[in-house]
Write a structure and sequence with these properties.
Layout lengths: L14 E5 L10 H9 L2 E4 L5 H4 L7 E4 L2 E2 L2 E2 L3 H13 L4 E5 L9 H10 L4 E4 L4 H8 L10 E8 L17 E7 L5 H10 L7 E6 L7 E6 L3 H7 L6 E5 L13 E4 L2 E4 L2
Parallel strand pairs: 1-6, 1-7, 2-3, 2-6, 8-9
Antiparallel strand pairs: 4-5, 9-12, 10-11, 10-12, 13-14
């Protein structure tokens, strides 16, 4: 990426990498809320909820760089260039990301690009979707009786089959999978091939902390059917481990029937 160096007398804006949390505006940090309400340019992901975007100041420019599986509004390199270009033009920028900028948010890449161009960067952490989703579903990621280790992994990335997940899930461990809806069959097969029991509890949390949130539970072996039959869509998180069975007991379990998982009505 090539950028023009600013003249010594020109003002350089600051790029704020801001975590928007899992969706509920009440879960924003105070600093994140202040920046959203005061900054004239917001570059946001598709996972940022409409309620949070509605907090932007009147007249603010909102630029969507939403990403979806196999379809990007803007390539990452172009996003990096956009942030740098706007900052060198003297504009402060809020780069608003679902969850936390530095947990599967590509915030590290954007920060590197800004620093390389001499653009100041500040990072405002957000509640990562792993914490927000599990709390909303009342699933404790750690528990004295069943889990003292938590691992976060990306379920949608290059070379998924070649990644070594051995030991990430099992007794005393919780595995949280981001972006795993589209690859649920491969994930279940991979974990069971590594020795995880087919009956290991699984929870799928869709649209966490939002009004349309739902939590689906079942065994690991039934994960692909659960996702398919219940038409799970992103944003959704997968929690695997004994703690997944400890969610809010008002949630209906899903049980395998004729190869699929069906909700109790």
């Amino acid at each position: 990426m090539q950028v023009c160096a600013p003249s010594p007398e020109s003002r350089i804006g600051t790029v704020h990498l801001v975590g928007a949390g899992p969706g509920d505006p009440d879960l924003l940090t105070l600093r994140a809320a202040r920046l959203i309400m005061s900054t004239a340019l917001i570059v946001h992901d598709g996972l940022v909820s409409p309620e949070i975007l509605s907090m932007a100041r009147k007249g603010a420019r909102l630029v969507s760089v939403a990403k979806a599986r196999s379809r990007h509004t803007m390539a990452q390199e172009a996003i990096n260039a956009l942030l740098v270009r706007e900052a060198l033009a003297g504009h402060d920028v809020v780069r608003l990301k679902g969850g936390d900028p530095f947990i599967f948010g590509r915030g590290g890449e954007e920060a590197q690009a800004c620093r390389a161009a001499g653009v100041p960067v500040q990072v405002v952490p957000g509640i990562t979707s792993a914490l927000g989703a599990s709390a909303a579903a009342q699933i404790p990621l750690t528990h004295r009786d069943s889990a003292s280790i938590v691992s976060f992994v990306a379920g949608q990335c290059k070379g998924l089959a070649e990644q070594n997940w051995a030991g990430l899930a099992g007794q005393g461990r919780t595995l949280v999978i981001f972006m795993g809806v589209a690859t649920a069959p491969e994930i279940a097969e991979k974990l069971m091939a590594d020795g995880l029991a087919p009956e290991t509890p699984v929870a799928v949390i869709e649209n966490a902390t939002r009004t349309e949130m739902r939590t689906l539970r079942g065994p690991l072996a039934g994960l692909p059917d659960l996702v398919q039959e219940q038409r799970v869509r992103s944003p959704a998180l997968i929690v695997i481990g004994e703690v997944a069975a400890q969610s809010d007991q008002t949630i209906r379990d899903f049980v395998p029937t004729t190869g699929a998982l069906e909700a109790e009505q």
